[in-house]
């Protein structure tokens, strides 16, 4: 038998049982589509978070208070960060860093009869430039407002709507923050979610005002932000910050520090590792369907060998060799799995698009996964067809011709 003839016979056997062929490939279709849909969800989530964190600035360091440790055991209570630390960093870091302390908490806002619960951040004016927060209406406060503990505020893009008033009409008006009057200086442009923050729903006031007028004399900072001119300056910035804060906190060289320094790249790496773990878990669950589909194809191919025993006997009597019979049944299994893989890819891509349109979740199709899914389907076809093909090839032609 010629190879082309073997291929046409194999394809003819698949066409002769269209419904059974489709049901046979259903496990592969479900498995491939599930893997692609789940991986696309994971890739989409990872891409969204990377984009959001990049908006925060890859050249911004976040300094937070930490407990001093010795041998992995905490040796004292957490040392607070203070505005004094921020001022020392601003003055003594050779102009390398742009600094802004931050103190924040969720409090109640009110204007006329409208109320809203929002995050209020006490910051320095440099914070707006660090995180690319641009003004749409009005202006921002300056160091004079910070030094005078002035009751002034800059509102995120969505806050005016929450207070039931068009943004331009709020400029110069007085809103209540935790029951205290604040003049609205400006409204920010729309920013969207940025990492773990929602700047469009936040209110920004001078740090000193937040400490002594909003949060009741609370001197402890939530964090200090330090921006370097470019990511290449990160190593130098780490050294500068460590040197200044060690001196401010009276920590000798070699002792464990009571603060931590992190950048947005650390957040990206941590989130990516978590996302990849969940993506692999979801893909593994979908792969179970591929395994079940492969078992189903092997089962159907064994049934096909039994049903076509006389046909195999006739072919052998006419001169077909074992390798030709083996090739025919392997080809049938391979074609079934590849067809199932292709249909599964189409179903998975369609499911990802449907999820995006109906649920608003971001998805991203990785075409390496698509190619890999089809390749795995082909491998499953070869594995599932090996034993049935071997069994068909070893049939005795005389016994096969006598089979009823």
Structure commentary:
The protein has 404 residues and is α+β, with helices and mostly antiparallel strands. The chain has helices at 3-16, 18-56, 83-91, 126-130, 143-147, 159-162, 167-170, 207-214, 234-248, 264-307, 309-317, 322-359, 367-393, 397-402, and strands spanning 60-65, 69-70, 73-74, 98-111, 114-123, 135-138, 152-155, 174-177, 180-188, 202-206, 223-227, 259-263. It folds into two domains: 3-52 and 269-402, no CATH class; 60-263, no CATH class. It is built from 14 helices and twelve strands. A hairpin with a 2-residue loop joins strand 8 (174-177) and strand 9.
Radius of gyration: 33 Å
Range of strand content: 15-25%
Order of helices and strands: HHEEEHEEHEHEHHEEEHEHEHHHHH
Number of E-state strands = 12
Q: What does the average pLDDT come to?
A: 81
Shape by Cα distribution: elongated
Number of domains: 2
Strand order of the largest sheet: 4-5-10-7-9-8
The helix content is 55-70%
Q: What is the subunit arrangement here? A: single chain
* Uncertain residue ranges: 70-76
Quote the distance from N terminus to C terminus. 25 Å
Total DSSP helices: 14
Reported for the largest beta sheet, the result is: 6 strands, mixed, barrel
Helix- and strand-based class? Answer: alpha+beta
């Amino acid at each position: 038998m010629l190879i082309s003839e073997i291929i046409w016979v194999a394809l003819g056997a698949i066409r002769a049982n269209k419904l059974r062929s489709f049901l046979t490939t259903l496990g592969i279709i479900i498995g491939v589509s599930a893997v692609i849909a789940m991986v696309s969800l994971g890739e989409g989530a990872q891409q969204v978070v990377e984009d959001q964190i990049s908006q925060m600035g890859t050249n911004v360091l976040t300094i937070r208070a930490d407990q001093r440790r010795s041998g992995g055991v905490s040796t004292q209570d957490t040392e607070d960060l203070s505005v004094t630390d921020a001022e020392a960093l601003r003055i003594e870091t050779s102009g390398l860093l742009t600094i802004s302390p931050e103190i924040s908490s969720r409090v109640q806002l009110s204007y006329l009869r409208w109320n809203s619960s929002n995050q209020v951040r006490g910051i320095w004016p440099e914070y707006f430039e660090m995180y690319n927060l641009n003004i749409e209406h009005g202006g921002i406060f300056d160091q004079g407002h910070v030094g005078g503990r002035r009751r002034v505020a800059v509102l995120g893009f969505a806050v005016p709507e929450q207070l039931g008033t068009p943004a331009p009409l709020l400029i110069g008006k007085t809103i209540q923050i935790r029951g205290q009057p604040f003049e609205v200086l400006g409204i920010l442009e729309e920013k969207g979610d940025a990492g773990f923050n929602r700047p469009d729903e936040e209110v920004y006031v001078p740090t000193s005002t937040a400490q002594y007028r909003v949060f009741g004399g609370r001197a402890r900072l939530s964090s200090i932000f330090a921006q370097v001119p470019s990511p290449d300056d990160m190593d130098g910035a780490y050294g500068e910050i460590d040197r200044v804060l060690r001196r401010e906190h009276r920590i000798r060289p070699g002792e464990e520090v009571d603060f931590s320094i992190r950048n947005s790249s650390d957040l990206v790496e941590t989130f990516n590792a978590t996302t990849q773990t969940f993506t692999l878990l979801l893909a593994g669950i979908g792969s179970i369907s591929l395994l079940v589909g492969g078992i189903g194809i092997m089962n159907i191919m064994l049934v096909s060998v039994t049903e076509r025993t006389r046909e195999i006997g006739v072919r052998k009597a006419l001169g077909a060799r074992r390798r030709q019979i083996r090739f025919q049944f392997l080809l049938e299994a391979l074609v079934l799995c590849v067809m199932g893989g292709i249909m599964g890819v189409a179903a998975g891509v369609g499911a990802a698009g449907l999820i995006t349109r109906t649920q608003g979740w971001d998805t991203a199709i990785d075409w390496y996964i698509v190619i890999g899914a089809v390749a795995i389907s082909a491998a499953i076809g070869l594995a599932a067809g090996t034993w049935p093909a071997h069994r068909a090839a070893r049939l005795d032609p005389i016994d096969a011709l006598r089979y009823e």
